[in-house]
Amino acid sequence: GFGLHEVPVVPTELLDGPPIKSVNLEGNFLETIPVWLAQLHYLTDLNVSNNRLTELNPHVMGRLSRLHVE
């Protein structure tokens, strides 16, 4: 998996790397889930706990088998 901490924006360079199944964005200052996460076709586990989310993106949520939001 991949984790980022205390960053307001997730770098799009992640799209150029190997397939990612798990992303941990816990404890950041995100207000929305980045739309580009929907392009991570192998993503099944997303942790966005302890952020400032005001909405969830249905394009990203569709394929997840686990979503952590607290």
Could you give the count of β-strands? 4
- State the end-to-end CA separation: 19 Å
Percent of residues in beta strands: 15-25%
Low-confidence stretches: none
- Provide the succession of SSEs: EEEHE
User: What sort of overall outline do the alpha carbons produce when their principal axes are compared?
Assistant: globular
Residue share in helices? under 10%
Notes on the structure:
The protein contains one helix and four strands; from the N terminus they run βββαβ. With 70 residues, it is mainly beta. Strands 1-2-3-4 form a four-stranded parallel β-sheet, with no helix packed on it. Strand 3 (45-47), helix 1 (58-61) and strand 4 (66-68) form a beta-alpha-beta unit. The mean pLDDT is 81.
Task: Record keyword descriptors for this entry.
mainly beta; 1 helix; 4-stranded parallel sheet; 70 residues
Concise overview:
The protein has 70 residues and is mainly beta. Helix content is 6%, strand content 16%. Strands 1-2-3-4 form a 4-stranded parallel sheet, with no helix packed on it.
